[in-house]
Amino acid sequence: MAAEAGSGTAEEMSLKDKGNEFFKAGNYLKAAALYTQAIKQDPSNPTLYSNRAAAFLQLVKLNKALADAETTIKLNPNWEKGYFRKGCILEAMERYDDALSAFQTALQYNPQSAEVSRKIKRVSQLEKDKKRAEEVQNMRSNVDMVRHLDALKSEMSEKYGAEEYWKDIFSFLVETMETAVKTWHETCKVDARVYFLLDKERTDAEKYAPIVNIDKAFESPHTHSNCFSFLRQYAEDSFSSAACLVVPKSIISYPQVWKGQGSRKWRHGQHDGFFVQFESPVLRKLWFIPSSNEKGQTLCRDPEALDIGAHEVLPRIFKEKLPDP
């Protein structure tokens, strides 16, 4: 019996060593097969499960790898390697919180391990990056301009009076801005356009559309002046109650948004982005929506309110209607 046991141990070691050679050579499938044969010879040896877990990890058979890591830990709860294997597999599964816990347990059993310490640092960063990427995706998917424009409601109420009137205008502004942001997220650009809130009863729908392209407006002082004149007449003839200009910053060569005062007057950084200018007979507003690239995704930042007197994209479109005395 002793001789048979000895013979079995020698065979097991031989299989493990062959498996190690194939593993080092990058033949992980053959290595896993040899570790499996060795496990049949010695099913209570934690090293064999640890090695096969490493092979399965390289083969991206992550569930099998995790099961072997758990068996390694069960067979030898005080061995750092089982927790290390488990951490590496959970990292590959992008279960970073669980991976971090496994690596921290490994460090308890081997506090001097530089390899485990490096893993803890790496996985901690990966977890932060993952959470931030999820936050960015959430912000991209759930654009909420009402939150940013909420303070405008009281000003509109004061200027327009009747709630049913200004609520339509507010909704028009919110919808226009949210659509522009979503378009920018999808394509990294917006077209230079003016959106009009037409009068459903009075506007000739066959003659006047709710959208006017103005991409040529910023090529020269002449085209800019012509565009403004056209838009002012269009707003009047179409019986529009409000308009919203959406213009990418990149196409504005004339006029500069700071009206020739130089970049020192522009205090909103070098971000790409676009302008939204709201126009109505009693209220005018201007915002710049900066854009950045974060975690590989295009992200529009919060709208920044600008002084329309200093930064207007186009002059007043509607003839000013002064409030009643």
UniProtKB/TrEMBL annotation:
Domain of life: Eukaryota
Lineage, uppermost ranks: Eukaryota, Viridiplantae, Streptophyta, Embryophyta, Tracheophyta
Name this protein carries in UniProt: Tetratricopeptide repeat (TPR)-like superfamily protein
Species for this entry: Melia azedarach
